[in-house]
Every structure is written in C-alpha cells, then in structure tokens.
Amino acid sequence: MRSLRSRLIVGALLWMVGLIVATHFVVVVLLPVARGQLVHWGALSVVALGLLAAGLTQVRTGLAPLGQLRARLAAVREGRATRVDGSYPAEVQPLVDDLNALLDERERSVARAQAKAGDLAHGLKTPLAVLTQELERPGSLARPELAATFRQQLDRMRRQVDYHLAQARAAASGPGLGVRCEVAASAEGLVRALERLHAGRGLVIEAETPPTLVVRVERADLDEMLGNLLDNACKFAGSRVRLAASAADAAVQITVDDDGPGLDPALRESVLQRGVRADQAFPGAGLGLAIVRELAELYGGSVALDRSPEGGVRARLRLPAA
C-alpha cells in the first residue's frame, strides 16, 4: 500500500476494531461480573458504530490539509499564485515553509539572471549600434565592398547577441512558476510596430487573438517568438500577414500566415535549425526561427511550418496555457 490515505484509513479501522474488542470485553465480561447483570448487545453496537464514525471523521479531518496543499501547489504551478499560503498541521508546516523559501530563492535567482542579461545586452548592443551608425556615414570607408562586409558581420554579431540573450533569459526563467502572459497584449503591440515598419509596402497585418488566452511564458520571450514569426512573415508576404490564436486542450495554438511564395516542404524542418536561411537574398544569420524553436521547447511548446491557406507559409506555435 503506497497511498498515505489508504494507510491511514486501514490503520484507523484496525484501531477501531481493537477498541470494539476492548469495549466488548469490558461491557460483556467485566461489567456483568461487577454488577451481576448482562448488557444488551444493542448498546454495544451503538458504542462500536459511534467509535467507528468518530475515527473515520478524524482521519478525514487529518487528511484535509493535504488536499488543500495539493490545490495550492497546483495554483503555483499554473501561475495563479507565487507562494503556498495557508496554515497546516505541525508535521506539514515545516515542509511548506521550506518550499516557500525555495520559491523565494528561485525568484531572486531569476531576477539576478535577467538583470545580468539586460546588462550584457546593453554592454554589447550599444557598441554594435554605434559601429553600424558610423558605417552609414558618407565616406566612412573608401572601399564599398569592405563597408558591405563590415555591415554584414555587424548584423551577424547583433543577431548572435540577440540569439544567446534570448536563450539565456529563457533558460533562467523557463516555464517559471507564476509566469503568465496574455497573447493578445503581445500580438497587438507587435502588429502596431510592424505596421509602422512596413507602411511603405502597403502590407496588411491582422491579429485575431481572444483576450482570454493566457500562456505560461514570460512576456519578453513571447514577444521574441511572435516578433520573429511576424517579422519573417512580413519579409516574404506579398500583401497580407495574419496572426490567429485559439485554445487547444491544455495549450494555446498561435498561427502566423503570409501570402508569399511559400516554402519548399523539404526546407520546412531545416530552416528551424540554427544558421539556416531559406532565402539568401534577405539579410540575417538564420537565427530568427531557431530562436523561436528553442524558446518554445524551453517552455514545453513547439513550432512547425506548413503551407498556409493564404498561399505562403503557416508557422504554428504551440505553448502551454496558463
């Protein structure tokens, strides 16, 4: 018997049987001898049933805090709480205190890791931006081919920094306890930014995301994933990009469609790998989709590419629901 509940119930029943036997001996054997009278069996039955009911009630009451603890642990796991609250029996309370201390320490560790990632981003991205700006000045380099090489390598360095920062941030947080993010809030902000960026192309970017959909992902990481998928779709789209989200069992499925030329089915898996680009005509180091894949997997999700009903590519991102 591995169940604590079963062990307690069986133990309580055995204890009750022992009490019944002892009561029987006292009432039926000792009292008649002492008083010279017999006790009716009905009285013995009433006493036995009363003791049995009292014992089972005590077992049920004793197990109730464990059910409460389980429910509050589920709330922490699902992101509805950050600590295990409540008062528990003396045997359980030290375990709850240690668990809360562990959660607090993890939260502090994640905050430190995120702060260091932010410092690294500022320390590396700012010099790269300055160098890129200097290269854009007329006459910065006398040889155009050398300037093009510098720009290409600076862009590659920037993308490498973005890639490793995103990976480090997600590894530090992962499917964190208490993490929740509304899909609509992330999607709508990204769509507005991309509409401004591609205003000259007349590109229509739509987002259909119910406000009730919430995922167990850090907002910065969800922005990273959706931003890369939308940016990739905008590069290849002819006139339209569409983002939609829906609930799927215990997950949220997000699709990004474009009406571009599409992608060879043989390349759909390989372009999700680090450093692989579907079209060499576009700038970049082939890290955008790899970032999406690795971030999604760190949170227990997935990403896949397919043919879109719009004629281009459909990116299907699946993330755990909160």
Structure, explained:
With 322 residues, the protein is an alpha+beta fold. The chain has helices spanning 4-35, 41-77, 93-135, 144-173, 183-197, 219-236, 288-298, and strands at residues 181-182, 204-208, 214-215, 240-248, 251-258, 302-307, 313-320. The strands form 2 sheets. A 5-stranded mixed beta sheet has the order 2-4-5-7-6, covered by helices on one side. It starts with a helix and ends with a strand. The model is unreliable at 34-38 and 275-286 (pLDDT under 50).
Terminal CA distance: 34 Å
Which sequence of SSEs, written as H and E, runs from N to C?
HHHHEHEEHEEHEE
| CATH superfamily caption of the largest domain | Histidine kinase-like ATPase, C-terminal domain
The main sheet comes to:
5 strands, mixed
Stretches where pLDDT falls below 50 for ≥5 residues? 34-38, 275-286
CATH architecture of the largest domain: 2-Layer Sandwich
Per CATH, what is the topology of the largest domain?
Answer: Heat Shock Protein 90
By helix and strand content, what is the structural category?
Answer: alpha+beta
Number of separate structural domains: 2
From the spread of the alpha carbons, the general shape counts as: elongated
What topology, given as strand order, has the largest sheet? 2-4-5-7-6
Quickly count the helices: 7
Please compute the radius of gyration using only Cα atoms. 32 Å
State the helical fraction.
55-70%
CATH class of the largest domain: Alpha Beta
Q: Beta-strand level of the residues, as a percent range?
A: 5-15%
Q: Round the mean pLDDT to the nearest integer and report it.
A: 76
Number of strands: 7
